[in-house]
Amino acid sequence: MRNKIIYVAGAYYDKTKQGTIKNINIARQMGIEIWNNGATAIVPHDNTYLYEYEKKSITKYDSFIEGDLEIIKQTDALYMLKNWKTSNGAKIEYNFAKKNHIPIITNKRDLKKFIQKKHKRCAFCSKIRTYYKKGFCSKCFNLIKKLKQQHNEEYFKEINKGFVIVPRL
Ligand SMILES: [Zn+2]
Fold first, then answer.
1. How far does residue 136's CA lie from ligand 1's centre (Å)?
2. What does the domain layout of the chain look like in residue ranges?
3. Distance 68 CA to ligand 1 centre (A)
4. d(CA 30, ligand 1 centre) in Å
5. CATH for 5-116?
6. Tens-digit pLDDT profile for residues 65-83
7. pTM value?
């Protein structure tokens, strides 16, 4: 089962188009490796491949970062490419993952271990996170705690039964 989704984070932009293409290729080689090892890779470099050279592309750099963080929220881990420290975007992604307790992988050996390991998943969002409380990831735990304060216990029981639709995290 390819149920682990791993996001590849690393340098994208370069001063030259050729340099950017080189960075994209580094990222997609890692994407191939992740797929070969049995997980599902998200390579943002491929997702918006050379969009900045398209006339129709009105999306700005900050919007791409914003969108990439939305994707990261849905993934089980981040894989940091060796060049990540040269990239402002990758640094933002790294800090975002840290803050949200999303596992961060920095080498191929740990990648294999991560893919093979049977991980515990959050009872609510079913994602793999490095911090759990009572079976929930910190984000879900805090959300549920907040709902509990706002509503009565009965409402909370309904959530557990799946009768209440809780807004997307
Ligand atoms: Zn969760």
1. 5
2. 5-116, 132-167
3. 19
4. 27
5. 3.40.50.10400
6. 999 999 999 999 999 999 9
7. 0.86
